[in-house]
């Protein structure tokens, strides 16, 4: 079996400014999203781009327009006719845009029906909120449709309908999503868009408050905090009847991590071994190769999750066969739809004996939207040279999916992970499995206490543990890691292990891609 071409599983997700060249696709999307409602004219779009270019943006997936958002900045006035969309948007031309205003007004948001369910509206709302932070705006106001109201219009008023949506008694595809994005209902607007038959002409007046707003400030006040939110899953292995049952449990954790706005979610090494419960049992070496047959399905599933939930996923690790050779590979599924992979380099004696796993030969450092990271699979973290190489390549966080059977094995992973933090001024997150798999030889019992570790110095947690799971229970932990604090510590910490290495006395030498390197 040749190595899988990861590009066949990848998405190309791009958030970019709207251009006039997008007009035909934008108009087509509007007709699908708002049937019966007049779409933007080319002149309106040209005017919006001219007046406020950074406020008009789209999401493109594999070269196709998938979603869009259009906005204008105005001055807040409690007497303003918020019910009058034409007045606030200048009938869609936004010539009333005020660069020094204090309020962002969202004049439209669309998600192409083909791409619904991928949570693209959340990405658009997050981008709008970021405009508020960057421009020190006090608030973000929108008028939202209530497209399910027509189903209830004969039995309740619009205000009662909204109350029921607020109380979770009724689901509305627009209002429910807006509430989950932090908006508060400030009022009900009748006759907002009379042509909107589904909403019976009504719209809600919603507001999101920018808590970072500095009254009187002319710009955003940059914080000296650069946080990355990490979610670590401590996963319980269990019998499953098919891949869908496995997928359901994985999606629960990714959904939860996304709800808490995590940047990364980390799964354990070989947590996919539970899939062996839904195939015919065989000898360990053959079972590992049976597990590898799930790899295409595994890749498809996790890249879909990364894009849908807008979170970078380190998908534990999985057996993969390349050119008839068995490897243990960890995949990085980025939220922009791309995939990276790290081969396990150091193979334990039991992996060789039972499964016939072969080693990889390269330390990868992956660029992400939160900075460079590395992945080291279980045993690899016990070799300090690998982390030295990763640190030299710029890694700030090392993610360690592990799978250990006893507390002794876990302690080796944990102790070495903490040592790597001190030696290289970095964060290390470890994720392990709990539970038993009686039908899987060499992966039948498990012990884990997953955690997130920091350097040991005054500015970090007292015991250098940012967060830690209770041992041997299925759970997850979420913690914010400050990358700026890490940089300052490396330059001016109580001790400076990286800077104080005696390179004239010792160094790490390695051979990679046909070249020799030393660290």
TrEMBL record:
Keywords linked to the UniProt accession: Hydrolase
One MF term in the entry's GO annotations: acyltransferase activity, transferring groups other than amino-acyl groups
UniProt cross-references to Pfam families, sorted A to Z: Acetyltransf_1, CN_hydrolase
Domain N-acetyltransferase: 13-212
EC assignment: 3.5.1.77
Domain CN hydrolase: 228-483
Stored InterPro entries: Acyl_CoA_acyltransferase (IPR016181), C-N_Hydrolase (IPR003010), C-N_Hydrolase_sf (IPR036526), GNAT_dom (IPR000182), UPF0012_CS (IPR001110)
UniProt family annotation: Belongs to the carbon-nitrogen hydrolase superfamily. NIT1/NIT2 family.
Stated name of the protein: N-carbamoyl-D-amino acid hydrolase
Organism per entry: Rubripirellula amarantea
């Amino acid at each position: 079996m040749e190595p899988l071409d990861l590009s066949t599983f990848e998405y190309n997700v791009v958030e970019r400014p709207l251009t006039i060249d997008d007009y035909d696709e934008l108009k087509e999307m509007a007709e699908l999203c708002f049937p019966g409602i007049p779409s933007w004219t080319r002149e309106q779009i040209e005017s919006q781009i001219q007046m406020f270019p950074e406020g008009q943006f789209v999401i493109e997936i594999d070269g196709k327009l998938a979603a869009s958002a259009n906005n204008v900045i105005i001055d807040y006035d409690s007497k303003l006719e918020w019910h009058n969309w034409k007045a606030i948007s200048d009938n869609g031309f936004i010539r009333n845009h005020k660069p020094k205003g204090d309020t962002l007004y969202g004049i439209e948001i669309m998600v192409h029906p083909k791409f619904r369910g991928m949570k693209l509206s959340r990405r658009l709302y997050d981008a709008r909120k970021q405009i508020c932070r960057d421009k020190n705006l006090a608030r973000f106001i929108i008028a939202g449709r209530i497209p399910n109201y027509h189903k209830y219009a004969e039995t309740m008023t619009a205000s009662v309908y909204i109350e029921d949506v607020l109380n979770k008694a009724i689901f509305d595809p627009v209002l429910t999503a807006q509430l989950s994005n932090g908006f508060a209902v400030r009022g009900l607007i009748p006759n907002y868009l009379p042509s909107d038959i589904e909403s019976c002409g009504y719209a809600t007046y919603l507001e999101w408050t920018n808590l970072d707003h500095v009254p009187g400030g002319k710009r955003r006040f940059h914080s000296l905090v650069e946080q990355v939110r990490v979610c670590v899953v401590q996963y319980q292995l269990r019998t499953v009847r098919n891949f869908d049952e496995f997928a359901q449990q994985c999606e629960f954790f990714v959904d939860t991590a996304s709800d808490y706005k995590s940047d990364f979610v980390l799964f354990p090494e070989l947590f996919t071994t539970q899939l062996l419960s839904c195939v015919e049992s065989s000898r360990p070496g053959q079972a590992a190769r049976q597990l590898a047959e799930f790899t295409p399905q595994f890749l498809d599933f996790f890249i879909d999750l990364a894009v849908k939930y807008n979170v970078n996923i380190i998908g534990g690790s999985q057996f993969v066969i390349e050119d008839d050779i068995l490897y243990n590979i960890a995949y990085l599924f980025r939220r922009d739809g791309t995939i990276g992979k790290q081969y396990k380099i150091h193979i334990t004696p039991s992996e060789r004996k039972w499964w016939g796993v072969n080693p990889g030969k390269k330390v990868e450092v992956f660029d992400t939207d939160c900075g460079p990271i590395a992945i080291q699979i279980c045993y690899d973290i016990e070799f300090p040279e690998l982390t030295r190489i990763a640190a030299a390549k710029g890694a700030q966080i090392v993610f360690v999916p592990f799978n250990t059977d006893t507390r002794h094995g876990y302690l080796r992973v944990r102790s070495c992970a903490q040592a790597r933090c001190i030696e290289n001024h970095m964060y290390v997150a470890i994720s392990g499995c709990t539970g038993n798999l009686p039908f899987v030889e060499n992966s039948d019992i498990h012990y884990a206490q997953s955690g997130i570790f920091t350097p040991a110095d005054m500015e970090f947690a007292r015991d250098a543990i940012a967060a830690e799971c209770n041992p041997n229970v299925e759970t997850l932990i979420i913690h914010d890691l400050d990358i700026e604090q890490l940089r300052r510590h490396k330059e001016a910490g109580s001790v400076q292990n990286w800077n104080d290495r005696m390179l004239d006395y010792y160094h790490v030498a390695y051979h990679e891609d046909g070249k020799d390197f030393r660290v």
